[in-house]
Design goal:
23% of the residues lie in helices and 36% in strands. The chain is an alpha+beta fold. A hairpin with a 2-residue loop joins β1 and β2. The longest helix is centred in the first third of the chain and has 17 residues.
Length: 447
């Protein structure tokens, strides 16, 4: 690795601090302990109407420590790397543990589940982007958006950001590991007007490597086109119809599933998918695989937040749930074993079908294409789904006109089973890789 680094401290310093925290915890009476020491740097530049609106920098450090005294747990954190601060933070965690009730499920991950090999997943690609160059990229994105159509009358700005982070996690079971990551993005949002009515839309590109970002001009052009096509939107009468969730919105459906089969929701019995392991939850065409080791992907990691090795696995096969998302604590509560998901799911790959979005529209024939959802209207306990939405009405397999001020309603149990097709227009910008999803029917509430 290059000698020059943008980080406040060296990797060796992070490792030394993590070890020192565990030593201090033992001195404080801990029977077990874990520590994470991290740092992050970044730069973000926003341009609006060709002028620089904001330039922000971050240069962060953090320590978190968890101390176990028997089955009692205490947690504390600090941003100060000084030795005195570390000692005080460990003492605080130990004091909290002494006054906390016993919890038989508390504790570190089982030693046999800890990672021993750390594959290089190519997650760190620093971007030596100056403020001046970032400004020019932002201007290029915004100019491209404004040039799409004379009805683009205003801009919410274009932002160009680069970010890098590093952490070391260690625990008293002998685990110590960490790595550097990067994440960069360019986004642009503009406003269009026609006949006195305004619409706005945006687009963005994000990647670990700057070389994998879309050109700034392409981001702006997409933002401009998406805004223009929403002009002259109408409302719909309330009806039942097929619905397509455009790929970026389809990721929310996957997220609702993940939340419902994650440990906290399951052991608290606050999930509409209780006892769903081995049950048919989705249509048979749905296959979801967790792939934690994809190089440069957003959700890639060699181990989870407890040091447990991550492994590729089938989460849904033929619509049947094959696995939950569990950390050590939730697994013990459920009488199961960790799945290496302390901290959340890793890359979820929803197997695509053969159709692109145009083919999905043709297959649907008549119905609603959803390109934006508003609000958080998902009941995690019942699965009831009701959210504001905007998009396009489809007739004869083609866009007829844009629609706004509607809401869509259904129940996720039914929606999952009613998935008719999944597009090959996969959105890979996040950790859920999924194409557009066609559902056979939902309630659309309008006028």
């Amino acid at each position: 690795m290059a000698a020059e680094t943008p980080f406040p401290v060296s990797t060796a310093t992070l490792e030394r601090l993590a070890g020192a925290i565990l030593t201090e915890a033992a001195k404080a009476g801990a029977t077990a302990a874990e520590a994470e020491v991290s740092q992050a740097v970044g730069q973000s530049v926003t341009v609006r109407k060709g002028e620089v609106e904001t330039v922000t920098y971050n240069r962060d450090k953090a320590i978190t420590v968890t101390v176990f005294i028997g089955t009692r747990r205490g947690h504390a954190s600090t941003a100060d790397f000084a030795d005195d601060s570390i000692r005080a933070t460990v003492q605080k965690a130990a004091a909290i543990a002494r006054y906390t009730a016993d919890d038989p499920f508390a504790g570190l991950a089982d030693p046999e589940r800890l990672a021993h090999e750390f594959p290089d997943l190519d997650l760190y690609h620093p971007w030596t982007l100056s403020v001046e160059d970032a400004i020019e990229l932002g201007r290029a994105a915004e100019a491209a958006a404004l040039a799409v159509d004379k009805r683009i009358v205003n801009s919410e700005g274009a932002t160009v950001s680069r970010g890098e982070s590093e952490f070391v996690y260690a625990n008293s079971n002998g685990f110590a590991g960490g790595y550097r990551t990067s994440r960069h993005h360019i986004d642009c949002a503009v406003v269009g007007e026609d006949g006195g009515a305004m619409q706005r839309d945006y687009w963005y590109t994000a990647a670990r490597s700057p070389g994998e970002l879309l050109p700034a001009e392409e981001v702006g052009r997409m933002a401009g086109q998406r805004t223009t096509r929403r002009l002259n939107a109408r409302r719909l009468a309330t009806l039942e119809c097929p619905v397509i969730f455009e790929a970026p919105e389809a990721g929310d459906l996957v997220g609702s599933f993940v939340s419902a089969v994650s440990g906290g929701s399951l052991y608290r019995k606050s999930s509409f998918l209780l006892d769903s392991l081995g049950r048919q939850v989705f249509a048979p065409i749905v296959h979801i695989r967790e792939e934690p080791h994809i190089e440069r992907a957003r959700g890639s990691a060699p181990f989870d937040n407890e040091g447990v090795a991550t492994v590729p696995r089938d989460v849904v096969s033929g619509g049947v749930v094959g696995g939950y998302f569990l950390g050590s604590y939730s697994a013990r509560k459920l009488g199961m074993t960790t799945t290496g998901n302390a901290g959340g799911a890793h890359n979820l790959i929803v197997a695509p079908g053969a159709d692109d979005l145009s083919a999905l529209l043709a297959r649907m024939g008549r119905g609603l294409l959803i390109t934006e959802q508003l609000g958080q209207g998902v009941n995690a306990v019942t699965g009831d789904y009701s959210r504001g939405a905007a998009g396009f009405w489809i007739e004869d397999g083609a866009i007829a006109y844009p629609v706004e001020e509607i809401s869509i309603a259904g129940n996720l149990k039914t929606m999952f089973r009613d998935i008719v097709a999944i597009g090959r227009d996969v959105d890979t910008r996040g950790s859920r890789h999924v194409g557009s999803i066609l559902i056979s029917g939902m309630t659309v509430a309008g006028q």
